[in-house]
Structure to design on (285 residues):
């Protein structure tokens, strides 16, 4: 189930408009949480996306509503109940894809995206890493959970519409592989309207320069998490800032303070993304 704020992000339709469509056209009738908040299922989100596409193409809302009401949609899979005690480590140990999906869907639907990536996710990833180091989880179980989180973050990244003209590169230096929080940052940045080019993990040094030239990037963000990430990250910073015109670089992660020639990001990824977006709008890349 998805909260109205999440449905707004998934469909590109404002919360106010979603309420108007519900009240005026009865496109969907969401369920209600015990606190009275709207909750939408996958099928209802698909209907709202279809209506949003029609309206975007110039179809009047009343006709679009009639069209989507008359168009059969494939039913969503039955929901998997999520026990209140379930957490990422427990779900990883169970190796149950349906239960893991249900957990993450529930978390993202009932908590704001910023709170998920600023509070819940870093805490759960820390617990996940501790469980692996202590031997409570195998490598396979840890990778199973990490892949599931990456799929959900990628979905939010892809659902956000990039609106800025100046592309920002986001990735890890060569050898860097801890990318989940960087992917969360990229999703926040794109949700803030920034044209984000996410490069992912282990990006070779020369590729940073090549991609920056190809897309016309004027800013880049690197994750620097481990001690071994510092040297390759510094090479990327030195390379990008020496270009003509230079590419401004920001760095985040636990080892960011060991990098010179780049601005440091805040710890909370939503605040860090908001700061980058503000600087871009102000022309201070």
């Amino acid at each position: 189930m998805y909260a109205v704020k999440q449905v707004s992000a998934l469909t590109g339709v404002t919360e106010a408009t979603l309420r108007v469509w519900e009240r005026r056209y009865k496109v969907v009738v969401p369920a209600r949480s015990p606190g009275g908040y709207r909750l939408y299922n996958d099928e209802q989100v698909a209907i709202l996306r279809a209506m949003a596409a029609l309206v975007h193409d110039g179809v009047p809302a009343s006709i679009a509503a009639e069209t989507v009401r008359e168009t059969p949609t494939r039913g969503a899979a039955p929901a998997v109940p999520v026990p209140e005690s379930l957490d990422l480590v427990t779900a990883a140990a169970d190796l149950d894809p349906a239960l893991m999906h249900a957990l993450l869907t529930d978390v993202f639907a009932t908590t704001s995206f910023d709170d998920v990536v600023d509070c819940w996710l870093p805490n759960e990833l820390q617990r996940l890493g501790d469980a692996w180091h202590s031997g409570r989880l195998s490598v396979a179980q840890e990778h199973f959970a990490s892949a599931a989180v990456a799929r959900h973050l990628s979905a939010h990244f892809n659902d956000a519409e990039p609106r800025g003209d100046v592309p920002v590169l986001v990735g890890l230096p060569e050898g860097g592989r801890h990318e989940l929080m960087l992917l969360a940052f990229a999703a926040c940045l794109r949700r803030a309207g920034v044209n984000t080019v996410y490069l992912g993990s282990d990006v070779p040094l020369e590729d940073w320069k090549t991609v920056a030239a190809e897309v016309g990037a004027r800013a880049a963000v690197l994750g620097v998490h481990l001690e071994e990430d510092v040297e390759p990250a510094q090479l990327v910073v030195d390379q990008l800032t020496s270009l003509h015109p230079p590419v401004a670089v920001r760095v985040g992660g636990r080892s960011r303070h060991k990098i010179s020639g780049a601005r440091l990001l805040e710890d909370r990824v939503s605040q860090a993304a908001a700061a980058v977006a503000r600087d871009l709008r102000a022309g201070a890349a």
